[in-house]
Amino acid sequence: xxxxxxxxxxxxxxxxxxxxxxxxxxxxxxxxxxxxxxxxxxxxxxxxxxxxxxxxxxxxxxxxxxxxxxxxxxxxxxxxxxxxxxxxxxxxxxxxxxxxxxxxxxxxxxxxxxxxxxxxxxxxxxxxxxxxxxxxxxxxxxxxxxxxxxxxxxxxxxxxxxxxxxxxxxxxxxxxxxxxxxxxxxxxxxxxxxxxxxxxxxxxxxxxxxxxxxxxxxxxxx
Length: 222
Fold this sequence. Notes:
By secondary structure, the chain is an alpha+beta fold. It has a single domain (about 5-220), classed as BirA Bifunctional Protein, domain 2, CATH 3.30.930.10. The chain has five helices and ten strands. The strands form two sheets. It has a seven-stranded mixed sheet, with helices on both faces. The chain has a three-stranded mixed sheet with strand order 4-3-5, with no helix packed on it. Strand 8 (about 135-140) and strand 9 form a beta hairpin.
C-alpha cells in the first residue's frame, strides 16, 4: 500500500529533504534487489518559491536577486525535468516517490498517468481539461480559444524510482507567474487556476482528497 503524507503548508527545502531521503532509500533497495514496500506520496502547499529544473534557462526568471530577497522568495535549483515554475499557497503539490517497475510503467506512461489524475479531478468540478502536444502538463481551453496551463509536471527518475511530481493551481495567486516565463513559455497570462475558472475559491482539502483518490486509482490499474 502507498503511504500518503499530507504536510499542509511546509517550506520547499524541508519537503525536498524528506523526498530525497525516501527516494534514496528506495533506490538503494532497488539496487540490492529488495522488494519495494514503502512507496510514499507527499501532498503539500509551499510558501512562495520558484524552482528551476535541470534544463531551466536563467532568462526565464524575470526578476533579479534583489527583488527575490526583498520579497522573501527563494529560487531553488533542483534535479527534475522542465524549466522554471512557481509554487505557493493555494497550489496543491504532489510528490509520488514510487517504483515504476512495481507498477509496470514506463516514464512516459507515468507522466501521462499524472496528467490523467488531474484531468479526472478537474472534471469533478465541471472543468474540461486536456493535454497539449509537446507541452507536458494539463491545460484548459478558455472562452477566447487560448490554452492556459492549470497544472505543471516535472519528475526525476532513477532506477525506476520517481520523485518530484505535479503542481495543480487551485486558489493560487497567479500574479507570481508573471515574474517568470513559466515552464519556458513567454506568452502572458498563460496560467490559470480552479478559482480563476470558477470565479470563486474552492475547498482545497476536497481537491486534495479527490486528486489523491484518482491518482491511487490509476496506479492500482497497472
